[in-house]
Write a structure and sequence with these properties.
The protein is built from 17 helices and no strands. The protein has two domains: 139 residues, Tetratricopeptide repeat domain (Serine Threonine Protein Phosphatase 5, Tetratricopeptide repeat); 160 residues, no CATH class. By secondary structure, the chain is mainly α. Helix 3 packs antiparallel against helix 4, helix 5 packs antiparallel against helix 6 and helix 13 packs across helix 14. It is elongated.
Length: 342
């Protein structure tokens, strides 16, 4: 074996060792920063944002181009009310190739907390140009412009519902808007969809009250067909079916009466001429078939309408109520993208 051959072989071995070492180093680095990020997120979940900042700054020094680290670091500063530092972190991210709609949402919220409303609006609009199907950005923009233009606000919430139908906050905002503008139909529908998307949320009791009040006002209007001005085909169908039950409300409206009205509504909606497919009504039909639709209506209206009557109903129908709660916990209420009718 010649000396030349041995030298070449040693060079190849050294090259392989160096390449392996480099790859191992990168793997260790990636593992280390991933572990740092998990540690930081654990601190954030605990509300310990000071420690989250310490860990995320370390991770970001190792991987300065990592958008996920920067987002969480900006959020941690934001929750600490250190808005200028949060803005310093998030602004460069808005120009990066890995930016997402959440980055624009975080930046807008920082500007909002700084009371820089015009800058906040600019950021949301810039984000929507890049991410025109972002439900969170439509929701945030609608909220920020609501004071100056209620009409533009609802247009944004409606666009958010249309383009990102599984994001719940646009339903909340739209339901409240329609309730106060006397549009009972969409206040009821959007309110109930929000309640199903966020059944344990802190705003859900408010929305349950809004739905109950909307039903009461719907049936006390001189002509309930006036409750929706644009009279889309969907709304005409809805009013045609619900109007059949107006006589049932002669003695007033409570959870039991609403359960009766809504049961008849489901049966009528899915019989006769074809009605447009709609997730909420399909869910009602499923609950009715499984024998737990009354339990669902008690969950939706009972505690709001009459707490003692609701508690008594739950005591006397334990199996039915447990079955409904088990079903509710086992799945998420998600709306298909092709079921927008407003």
């Amino acid at each position: 074996m010649t000396l030349f051959y041995l030298c070449n072989r040693m060079k190849k071995i050294l090259s392989i060792l160096m390449l392996s070492s480099l790859m191992l180093g990168k793997s260790v680095l990636a593992q280390s920063t991933d572990q740092l990020h998990e540690t930081a997120k654990a601190f954030m979940r605990q509300g310990d944002f000071s420690n989250a900042v310490l860990v995320l700054n370390r991770a970001l020094r190792q991987m300065p181009e990592n958008t996920a680290f920067a987002k969480d670091l900006a959020l941690s500063y934001y929750y600490q009310k250190d808005n200028l530092k949060a803005l310093e972190i998030i602004k460069p991210v808005l120009e990066s190739k890995d930016v997402d709609d959440q980055c624009f949402q975080i930046a807008g919220n920082i500007y909002k907390q700084l009371d820089q409303i015009k800058e906040c609006e600019k950021v949301y609009r810039k984000g929507l140009k890049k991410f025109p199907a972002s439900g969170p950005l439509y929701s945030e923009l609608g909220e920020i412009i609501f004071v100056d233009s209620k009409l533009d606000a609802i247009k944004n919430w409606e666009k958010g519902i249309e383009t990102d139908p599984s994001y719940n906050k646009n339903y909340y905002n739209a339901a409240r808007y329609y309730f106060f503008s006397a549009d009972r139909v969409w206040a009821i529908i959007y309110g109930e969809m929000y309640a199903n998307m966020d059944p344990t949320g802190i705003k859900t009791p408010e929305i349950k009250q809004l739905i109950l009040d909307s039903y009461k006002k719907l049936f006390t209007e001189p002509d309930i067909k006036r409750t929706d001005k644009d009279k889309t085909g969907f709304v005409k169908d809805y009013l045609e079916v619900i109007n059949k039950q107006s006589s049932v409300t002669a003695a007033g409206i409570n959870a039991e009466i609403l359960s009766m009205i809504r049961t008849r509504f489901v049966i009528d909606w899915f019989s006769g001429k074809n009605k447009p497919a709609f997730k909420l009504f399909s869910y009602h039909q499923q609950l009715l078939k499984e024998g737990i639709f009354e339990a669902y209506n008690q969950w939706l209206f009972g505690a709001t309408e009459n707490l003692s009557a609701y508690e008594n109903w739950v005591r006397t129908h334990p199996d039915e109520y447990k079955s409904f709660l088990a079903l509710q916990k086992s799945r998420m209420f998600k709306v298909p993208a092709d079921q927008y009718y407003h």
